[in-house]
Structure to design on (225 residues):
């Protein structure tokens, strides 16, 4: 079977969870990356059976998550993490949650993965129109998207597939899709093409993005969609 790492699962409402379920139903082993501040509640809820109903697969069995990794995709490596974040009590209880460390942990634990899903969302200024978005706000979002895709999560030696979620606001004006998220999706789509070319030639890894339809996830509620 294939092994999938899905970044961006912290409840059972988002795309990450739904994709994890589909992959599990198709026989894949599921690893997830969960935003550090959301890790505790996600693990607790999972343990207490809060998601059991939504864990049911078409064959009646429950989706198993082999391992949950703490992740904050804003940071590439430990040196990038500011002191106040390191010592923040929402972060200090976990370790190895930068992109690079997380990738290393997965490699140590499992050797390699076959499928990488990027299902992260969190623009710091999402509710602001682009006109009022700070350079920092949009830069943060863009950086995160492309960095994660380009990260060195170790794929199976040859082959493998990476998937991101995008939105048509990259190409057309969708009022309310603010905070530089439209720019981030445009960058993501461009990165997807370039990375598909580069990683395809170099490692035979496929890089794709799906333009998603509306889903009332936590992130979608935050922007009032
Ligand atoms: P979600 O909140 O379920 O998932 C986002 C996850 O990212 C959460 O688990 C967060 O904890 C996690 N996260 C945030 N910041 C970080 C971080 N720094 N490090 C690690 N994890 C972090 O939301 P979702 O499932 O909606 O989002 C998943 C992907 O789908 C995102 O890339 C979205 O942009 C994309 N997407 C979602 C929708 C939607 O409707 N939910 C649409 C298009 C794309 C969309 O907005 N019509 C209107 C709107 C839309 C489509 C059609």
């Amino acid at each position: 079977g294939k092994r999938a790492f899905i970044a961006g699962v912290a409840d059972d409402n988002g795309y990450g969870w739904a994709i994890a379920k589909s992959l599990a139903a198709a026989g894949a082993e599921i690893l997830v990356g969960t935003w550090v501040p959301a890790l505790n509640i996600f693990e607790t809820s999972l343990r207490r059976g809060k998601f059991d109903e939504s864990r049911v697969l078409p064959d009646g069995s429950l989706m198993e998550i082999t391992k949950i990794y703490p992740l904050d995709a804003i940071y590439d490596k430990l040196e990038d993490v500011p002191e106040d974040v390191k010592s923040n009590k929402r972060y200090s209880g976990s370790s190895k949650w930068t992109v690079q460390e997380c990738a290393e942990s997965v490699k140590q634990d499992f050797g390699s993965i076959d499928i990488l899903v990027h299902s992260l969302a969190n623009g710091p200024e999402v509710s602001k129109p682009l006109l009022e978005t700070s350079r920092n706000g949009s830069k943060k979002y863009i950086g995160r998207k492309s960095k994660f895709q380009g990260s060195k999560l170790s794929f199976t030696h040859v082959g493998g597939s990476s998937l991101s979620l995008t939105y048509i606001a990259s190409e057309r004006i969708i009022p309310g899709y603010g905070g530089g998220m439209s720019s981030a999706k445009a960058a993501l789509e461009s990165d997807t093409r370039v990375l598909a070319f580069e990683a395809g030639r170099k490692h035979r890894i496929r890089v794709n993005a799906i333009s998603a339809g509306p889903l009332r996830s936590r992130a979608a509620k935050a922007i009032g969609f």
